[in-house]
Amino acid sequence: MTDFKSAKELLVLCGKERKISEVMRQRECDFSEAAPEEIDGRMRQVLRIMRESAAAAIDAPVKSMGGMIGGEAKKLNRFQSGGRSLCGPVIGRGITFAAAVLEVNASMGVIVAAPTAGSAGIVPGVLLALQQEYDFSDDRMVDALFHAGAVGYLAMRNATVAGAVGGCQAEVGVAAAMAASSAVELMGGAPAQSLDAASTVLMNMLGLVCDPVGGLVEYPCQNRNVAGVAAAFTAAELALAGISQLIPFDEMLDTMYQVGKRIPYELRETALGGCAASPSGCRFCR
Amino acid sequence: MFISVFDVLGPNMIGPSSSHTAGACAIAHLAQKIKSGRLKEVEFTLYGSFARTYRGHGTDRALLGGIMGFAADDVRIRDSFEIAGERGIAYRFIPDEKETDVHPNTVDIRMVSESGTETAVRGESLGGGKVRIVRINGVSVDFSGEYNAVIVIQRDRPGVAAHITRVLSDKGVNIAFMRLFRESKGETAYTIVESDERIPEDIAGRLLENSNIRDVMPVQKEER
Fold first, then answer.
1. Last residue of one domain, picked from the residues B126, B143, B160
2. What is the domain count for chain A?
3. Does B4 contact A106 at a Cβ distance shorter than 8 Å?
4. Does A235 fall in a domain?
5. Cβ atoms within 10 A of the Cβ of B1, count?
6. How many Å apart are CA B89 and CA B197, to the nearest integer?
7. Looking at the partner chain, which of A24, A108, A150 has a beta carbon nearest the beta carbon of B16?
8. What are phi and psi of B134, to 5 degrees?
9. A220 inside domain
């Protein structure tokens, strides 16, 4: 049985030969007793839904259930086509896709929770933007999703991915760590570099509170997904440049968890504090 | 408990919330497997965060969709009010913000079939689309739908559990978990058996040979 309980164990399993995505796929095959083709098929379905949800709102914007968002992806896309994008093509597309997925989610469209619905835009945003820029095959994208899954699994196992438990850092922070780590592998980095990138993201998003206006997965969730994409790309870039991190991912995950537990109740998905309690946000209180 | 890569990248779902939308749908989807007969009327009582935010999360549409057998990623959930209308299913939602002695995302589902049979199910949405059923017709149970299961409604009498295990063994079903719940001594009891394999559909006939068994409901795990 291929299994690992920490990033440290994962790196041992990778050794010098194997990628994180390979180890994670093997683990899934071993435990689920399913054939690799079946598991790859399910992951291709995940990729399909991600791609559709990232594209849909760019062409056909929809108003959200709570009425707070809708149309942002289209606006971003139009602005970026005008040649004045500050973010450049990769981050620019990444944030547009992320905004689009949150828009689809908030209007009862089909999405893949990654790891949660409120943070569902980041993994597809980062990975699909890289695919567009570098023409990666869908097989490579499926690998990238297994890799992202490995990082998210460690967060679920050893910390939390629930905003109600650990704040937004546990949702958007973990999603961005998953995306950053996977992006490093996709761009040819080593497993240790990947996990350094994941560590960097958690560090940079440490303490982020979960304060949804009106208690709905709309605002500031969509903005935070956009920020998560940017955090993932900057962390991946550091890692690929050969900058290693002082604090390993396992420790950073535990740190995130400890900080999360200390976030006051009002700032953990209860809509009682933060943006939700601002005068303008409170117009959506009941 | 094994955390699958598809627990991380998943569920595939209709937004906006894995607990308030996908989880709500999953609870109702399990509940409709527990009822018998064609559904005529359904009433949802919502507690805690469900009661406060159900409209903005589409919890109502998701519950109604689930009760009509839609999975959490079925786009028909958006139109479940209209579809329930077409199917002649009467529905209502009652937010109860007073009751606080429950899990924050709890729903009571009361179903009435065309023949007038009533079934009441309480479910909790635990986050990430995970759910559990905690009450059936007033009896406390614990059941997640993550395994293939068979729910047996019986009278609390000696020998019933032995009969159930004998039939399962004859059918080659390996029991992963088996739990008994009862109202009170000698009254209605529930046996919930969970298994890795599919429960043979013809198991009900064999189980009902014991006169103390009143109803048998196989609840198969969803094929993904």
1. B143
2. 1
3. no
4. yes
5. 6
6. 33
7. A108
8. -115, -5
9. yes
pTM of the model: 0.92
CB contact under 8 A, B8 and A149: yes
Determine which helix (DSSP H) or strand (DSSP E) holds B86, and give its type and residue range. Answer: helix B80-86
Chain B residues within 8 A (CB-CB) of chain A? Answer: 2-18, 21-22, 49, 52-53, 55-58, 61, 73, 75, 77-78, 127-129, 224
CATH of the domain at B75: 3.30.1330.90
The Cα–Cα gap between B43 and A77 comes to 44
Regarding whether B97 and B39 lie in a shared domain, the answer is yes
Range of the domain at A220: 18-285
Rounded to 10 degrees, the C-alpha dihedral A138/A142/A145/A147 comes to -120
CB-CB: which of B6, B52, B75 is closest to A110?
B75
For residues B130 and B182, state if they share a domain.
no
* DSSP 8-state secondary structure symbol assigned to residue B223: P
- Distance (Å) of CA A90 to CA A86, A131, A234, B188: 11, 9, 12, 62
Residue of B nearest to A3 (CA): B2
Residues from chain B contacting residue A163 (CB–CB below 8 Å): none
Q: Are B209 and B182 in contact (CB under 8 A)?
A: no
Whether residue B102 is predicted with pLDDT greater than 90 in this model: the reply is no
- Can you read off the two tokens belonging to residue B166? 């004998």
Cβ pair B9:A148 closer than 8 A: yes
Residues of A in contact with B21 (CB under 8 A): 108, 117
C-alpha of A262 from chain center: 23
Asked whether residue A44 carries a pLDDT value surpassing 90, the answer given is: yes
What average pLDDT does this structure show over A92-104? 98
Residue B197 — pLDDT band, cuts 50, 70, 90?
A: confident
Same domain, yes or no: B138 and B207: no
CA–CA distance, B7 with B12 (Å, rounded to integer) = 10
Q: Are residues B28 and B91 in the same domain?
A: yes
* B2 located within any domain: no
Amino acid at A74: K
Q: What length does chain B have?
A: 224
**pLDDT tens digit sequence for A244-269:** 999 999 999 999 999 999 999 999 98
* pLDDT tier, B53 (very low <50, low <70, confident <90, very high otherwise): confident
pLDDT of residue B52: 86
- Tell me which residue range forms the domain holding B129: 10-143
The rounded distance, in Å, linking the Cα atoms of B173 and A29 is: 24
**3-state DSSP assignment of residue B132:** strand
- Do B15 and B86 reside in the same domain of the chain? yes
- Domain closes at, from B123, B143, B163: B143
Nearest to A156 among B8, B15, B75 (CB): B8
Q: What is the domain-level CATH number for residue B154?
A: 3.30.70.260
Chain A, chain B: beta-carbon pairs less than 8 Å apart: 128
B179-189 pLDDT, tens digit each: 999 888 989 99
Question: Which are the contacts of A75, defined by CB distance < 8 A and separation ≥ 6?
Answer: none
